[in-house]
């Protein structure tokens, strides 16, 4: 098996088929809706909040609201009152079951539910998928996070409509250091490995450091890319603003950090400061333009044309050119 990460891969251009990059369509169909970009901000407290969720839904982007210190039922009700789709996160504990029951009792099926725990290849996730499918059969269920083909096969078999791949590649992640496990350092090849067996969409989660990594994720099998650090630090980002040495930063912390948990127990995340980088809407427009350019380099006109390109691995034992996935 080849082991590589984003910075060791370059995609190879194919003959251009468009007159202008504006002809390239970066949108994606995901769970029955079409979104402008194959990108979703991480469901973390310093990345997304209610206001951003509303804005993303109103402007044609996918979002997943986080699940911390939040009344999911109120959130879903308000999104629906605004005529917007609802996309929530759940864990696997008793209060999460109660949320599903209450949503079902009130006839408030969210369009998307993401079961979001650190070790998603677990019986607890199987049971939660089954509970959601019984109570809220209309909801599109995303389950994770996982790192192996076996896990993808199990989650799909248990009824997940999409899986989320990535254990430990995140910028504020310390899972690798604390546990010795994960896809940190080889996330892109883990994605490729998982995509080989997937029959449903995959969300590649974590490790994106530049916009070109979005096209690389699509090339290796993702339908959607979850991004934390590149989205944290915008003017609208929910993290607190911190001034240091005359410069302004926003805090970005892991969901399994003591900052998020409120206690130092099973900590697998840390806090960093992200330089403030302007408006989120501008970054999304730049991302769309960059993905359009990726599609044009792929010799295509639509996002999935990126899947057709060859690639090279730079350096290391696996270095070489690859004609097919
Ligand atoms: N993508 C990634 O690499 C990672 C992401 N995270 C994020 O942090 C947040 C908190 O995650 P999490 O701690 O799972 O959520 P929860 O605190 O809600 O825990 C979920 C359940 O899974 C159990 N659990 C957690 N980790 C393990 C494990 N390694 N083995 C067996 N059982 C486990 C917990 O029990 P108990 O606590 O008693 O063990 C609990 O019952 C989530 O948003 C998650 O996505 C966290 C780590 C890695
Ligand atoms: N191991 C941990 N992973 C975490 C934690 N909180 C969030 N995450 C994951 O990171 C990505 C974002 O990665 P980035 O490289 O884009 O910044 C996020 O979507 C989660 O999957 C954590 O505390 N520990």
From TrEMBL:
Keywords: NADP, Oxidoreductase. InterPro entries: Aldolase_TIM (IPR013785), GMP_reductase (IPR050139), GuaC_type_2 (IPR005994), IMP_DH/GMP_Rdtase_CS (IPR015875), IMP_DH_GMPRt (IPR001093). It comes from the Bacteria. Its EC number is 1.7.1.7. Catalyzes the irreversible NADPH-dependent deamination of GMP to IMP. It functions in the conversion of nucleobase, nucleoside and nucleotide derivatives of G to A nucleotides, and in maintaining the intracellular balance of A and G nucleotides. This is GMP reductase. Residues 5-308 form the IMP dehydrogenase/GMP reductase domain. NCBIfam families: GMP_reduct_2 (TIGR01306), PRK05458.1 (NF003966). It catalyses: IMP + NH4(+) + NADP(+) = GMP + NADPH + 2 H(+). GO terms for molecular function: GMP reductase activity. Belongs to the IMPDH/GMPR family. GuaC type 2 subfamily. PANTHER family: GMP REDUCTASE. It comes from Ottowia pentelensis. The active site is at residue 173. NADP(+) binds at residues 202-225. Gene3D superfamilies: Aldolase class I. CDD domains: IMPDH (cd00381).
């Amino acid at each position: 098996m080849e082991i590589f990460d984003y910075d060791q891969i370059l995609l190879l251009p194919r003959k251009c088929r468009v007159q202008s990059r504006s002809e390239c369509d970066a949108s994606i169909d995901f769970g029955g809706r079409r979104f402008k970009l194959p990108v979703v901000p991480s469901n973390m407290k310093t990345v997304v909040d209610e206001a951003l969720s509303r804005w993303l839904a109103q402007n044609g982007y996918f979002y997943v609201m986080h699940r911390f210190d939040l009344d999911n039922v109120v959130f879903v009700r308000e999104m629906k009152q605004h005529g917007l789709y609802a996309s929530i996160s759940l864990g696997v504990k008793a209060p999460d079951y109660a949320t599903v029951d209450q949503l079902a009792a009130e006839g408030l099926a969210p369009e998307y539910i993401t079961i979001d725990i650190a070790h998603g290849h677990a019986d607890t996730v199987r049971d939660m998928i089954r509970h959601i499918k019984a109570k809220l059969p209309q909801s599109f269920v995303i389950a994770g996070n996982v790192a192996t083909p076996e896990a993808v096969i199990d989650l799909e078999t248990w009824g997940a409509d999409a899986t989320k791949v990535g254990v430990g590649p995140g910028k504020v992640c310390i899972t690798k250091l604390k546990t010795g496990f994960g896809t940190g350092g080889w996330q892109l090849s883990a994605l490729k490995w998982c995509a080989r067996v997937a029959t449903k969409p995959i969300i590649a989660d974590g490790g994106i450091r530049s916009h070109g990594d979005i096209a690389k994720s699509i090339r290796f099998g993702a339908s959607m890319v979850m991004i934390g650090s590149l989205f944290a630090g915008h003017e609208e980002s929910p993290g607190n603003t911190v001034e240091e040495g005359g410069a302004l930063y926003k805090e970005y912390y892991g969901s399994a950090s003591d900052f998020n948990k409120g206690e130092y127990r099973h900590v697998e995340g840390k806090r960093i400061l992200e330089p403030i980088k302007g408006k989120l809407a501008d970054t999304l427009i730049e991302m769309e333009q960059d993905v359009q350019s990726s599609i044009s380099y792929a010799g295509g006109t639509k996002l999935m044309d990126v899947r057709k390109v060859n690639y090279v691995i730079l350096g290391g034992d696996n270095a070489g050119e690859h004609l097919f996935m």
